[in-house]
Design goal:
Mean pLDDT: 82
Distance between the termini: 7 Å
Number of helices: 8
Shape: elongated
Strand content: 15-25%
Low-confidence stretches: none
Radius of gyration: 35 Å
Order of helices and strands: EEEHEEHHEHHHHH
Number of strands: 6
Helix content: 55-70%
Number of domains: 3
Strand order of the largest sheet: 1-2-4-3
Largest sheet: 4 strands, mixed
């Protein structure tokens, strides 16, 4: 599910601005963008987000600055600078000529001179990042909840459509043995075998057909799955994964009905139901 949230907080010398945005994804993933100086806090950031989000890719951008003004400094990597100096001296020895580096030779190496702030304690920074992050995540969850309400209404309508297909199948399936009996008698008459409809062989054939084509168990399980689906939609827990599982079970039952019914009309209804079910499965992927 998609959403966006923003939060700000200030404590002591620190000012934090946090933005959190989410896009659809079957699993939960948190991507954190923040200063490398505070990279040790990424685990806490992910834990805070995952406490409220169980599905979707969440991008978290954290901007942290000192509220008291600019405290930027230039930092020189002393070990890298010395290594470069020694390298040029070694080149001079090897070539027998004085090879003197220019300033540009040093500046070509990333990380030799970096812009940063004075030394900071990540835990001091976390005390201001955490409330800003929680505000951003709550705003994100609120937006996702609004989207979820629309998804719920759509899924409820589509489950109602599936239930109507199941009811149609139930009606058609109940008449199927009688239609098969008439078809069998017609074939017998066309073959000049005008048997008595009460003939034991005819009755036995119809009974076997009715048993093979009985889909009452599948229809009962469909009704149970529909009820459970609605129960998950109305529940307090995140329903995404249970609904995904129920979609698989619904598909299995409709597929079995299509195989057993041996009827063109029922088969067509099953195709329509599976088409609608595929739309539900696509939507469920977006549900937390």
């Amino acid at each position: 599910m998609t959403g966006f949230g923003r939060g700000s907080a200030q404590a002591g010398e620190w000012l934090a601005n946090v933005e959190a945005g989410s896009v659809n994804r079957k699993q939960a993933e948190v991507v954190v963008q923040m200063s490398r100086e505070f990279s040790s806090l990424e685990t806490e950031v992910r834990k805070t987000v995952l406490d409220r989000i169980s599905r979707g890719r969440v991008n978290v951008s954290i901007s942290l600055e000192r509220a008291g003004g600019d405290s930027a400094v230039l930092k020189v990597d002393a070990s890298l600078a010395k290594a470069l100096h020694d390298a040029f001296r070694e080149i001079s020895i090897l070539t027998g000529e004085d090879v003197l580096p220019a300033a540009s030779d040093y500046l070509r190496h990333p990380g030799l001179i970096a812009t940063g702030s004075t030394e900071s304690d990540p835990q001091d920074a976390w005390r201001v990042i955490e409330p800003a992050l929680r505000d951003a995540v709550e705003a994100l969850v609120t937006m996702r909840s609004s989207e979820g309400a629309h998804l719920k209404a759509d899924l409820e309508a589509r489950i109602g459509t599936l239930a109507a297909f199941a009811a149609r199948i139930s009606t058609d399936a109940a008449d199927r043995p009688a239609r098969q009996r008439e078809l069998l008698l017609k074939r017998l008459r066309d073959a000049s075998l005008d048997l008595d409809p009460a003939d034991e062989r005819v009755v036995k054939e119809i009974a076997l057909f009715a048993d093979r084509c009985d889909v009452s168990e599948e229809l009962t399980r469909l009704d149970s799955h529909f009820a459970k689906f609605r129960e998950y939609l109305d529940g307090e827990e995140a329903p995404g994964r249970p609904l995904d599982f129920l979609c698989q079970e619904l598909f299995r039952e409709f597929n079995t009905i299509g195989s057993k019914a041996n009827d063109a009309g029922i088969a067509q209804t099953v195709v329509e139901a599976k088409t609608e079910l595929e739309k539900i499965r696509e939507q469920v992927q977006n549900v937390e």
